[in-house]
Amino acid sequence: MRGHSALYRIRLASRKDAAAVLDLYAPYVTSTTVSFEVEPPSVDEYADRIQSALDRYTFLVLERMDNEDEEGLGTAGEAAPAGADIVGFASYGPFGHRVAYQWSAEISIYLKQGLTGNGLGAHLLDALEKIMASAGITNSESCICSENTGSIEFHRRHGYRTCAEFTDCASKFGRWLGIQWLEKHLAPHPANPQPPHAPAPQDCERILAAVNARLASKS
User: Fold this and answer.
1) Residue limits of the N-acetyltransferase domain (predicted)?
2) Which residues contact 72 (CB under 8 A, 6 or more apart)?
3) Most buried of 39, 118, 150, 162 (most Cβ within 10 A)?
């Protein structure tokens, strides 16, 4: 029997993925406190979010494929092949809007509900962090609802530590909620750092190829 990993690949997203990614994300908005949005964005709005991330940062999708779709799947921003379903995504963007923050970035990672706990999130996070480091990002920051203990523990297992906690700072579903900020250092902090840059296509290709090879090896 084949393992789960041979059926999954990570690639760069494109605007065409907006509807599929939104189908995955919307239940987290409408039914959970994982996202602090209270209304799902439209497909067009989400397409703009994806494009904005791709222009300066990155946006990755995790696909689950039928067996016949496994061979030849690219890693760049192409639409999902027939028979492929987007079951996860990860992105990063600005941590703060002042110039001095530019070496830190806030991350976001989601898996389709019911798909956590099998190692797929670890591969997705690894790909995202390596792309961030290749672009000159030194600090990865994650803001998580305090009651989302599964996500907090996931990040801690992968090297993050809680740096700040805020109590009763948001309200959703008639309840006051707290948040935790978790941080991981991805690279050294030189005395005179060069400004970060958009990820180079060749770096993304190399990193995603290596991560996908590890996924495939788990079959």
Assistant:
1) 8-183
2) none
3) 162
Sheet bearing 161-172, strands edge to edge? 8-12, 58-64, 85-94, 104-111, 139-145, 175-185, 161-172
Digit-coded pLDDT (tens) for 11-68: 999 999 999 999 999 999 999 999 999 999 999 999 999 999 999 999 999 999 876 4
Residue-range definition of the domain harbouring residue 171: 4-217
- Residues 117-129: tens digit of each pLDDT: 889 999 999 999 9
- On whether the pTM is more than 0.70, the answer is yes
Distance CA 36, CA 38 (A): 6
Judged by DSSP in three states, 145 sits in strand
Handedness of CA 38, 151, 109, 25 (dihedral sign): negative
Amino acid at 115: L
Cα-based angle 78, 18, 59 (whole degrees, multiple of 5): 65
Handedness of CA 18, 21, 26, 32 (dihedral sign): negative
Total number of domains in the chain: 1
Tokens of 69: 């779709």
| 3-class state of residue 117 by DSSP | coil
Here the tokens at position 157 are 């297992």
The residues that bridge with 166 in the sheet, in sequence order, are: 179
* Rounded CA separation 161/182 (Å): 5
71 has a pLDDT exceeding 70: no
Tokens 């958009």, located at residue: 198
How many C-beta atoms surround the C-beta of residue 183 within 10 A?
17
